[in-house]
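re the bet — no i am not wrong, look at it urself. input seq straight from the record:
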Amino acid sequence: VTGVQTCALPIWVLEERGIMNRKGFPESYDTRRLLQFLRELKSGTAEVSAPVYSHVVYDIIPDESVLVRQPDIVILEGINDISYENASAEQLIGAYKDLIARAHAKGIRIIGGTLLPIQKSVKDTPENEQTRQAVNRWIRTAKAFDAVIDFEAVVRDPVNPLIIRSDLTVDHVHPNSAGYRLMAEAIDTEVFEQAR
């Protein structure tokens, strides 16, 4: 697993622009470099580099970069398609298969994330829940993805597995900061090596 800190601008640029007191996105970021980095990742470029940012000196380390080789894709997508577009399980599974085929054609591994619970949310209908569960069954059992991360299992309420734990959400659809943190901490980084 390769971590990329940011595509921040060097301190001398922030000083020159008079924005040292406003460090943060987007002002102190090299937006052009960030977009270039994302374009290269999305296009399947075999090796993508980014500057190394030091949290010791709070600046980019000159002449150093981190190299991301054959980045993986983790996909957690589908709730809006189900609730706003009335996508069926078959349509979503077809879209997943298409994404998997495109990633594999470029030599990129793709890891599926299960869809989070939606009960008690504005997206909660019997039809949406049936579709969500069918999609999750497919994600878990089809072996179409190179690996699976069961995000649903991480955030669901142990008493009612159809809802996100109340301490991990504000709207019963989206995790809050604690929910996203728990999801990130639950990822076994070996999944990225197993998928190779």
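see?? Residues 10 and 16 are 10 Å apart (CA to CA). told u. also The longest helix spans residues 89-105. so pay up
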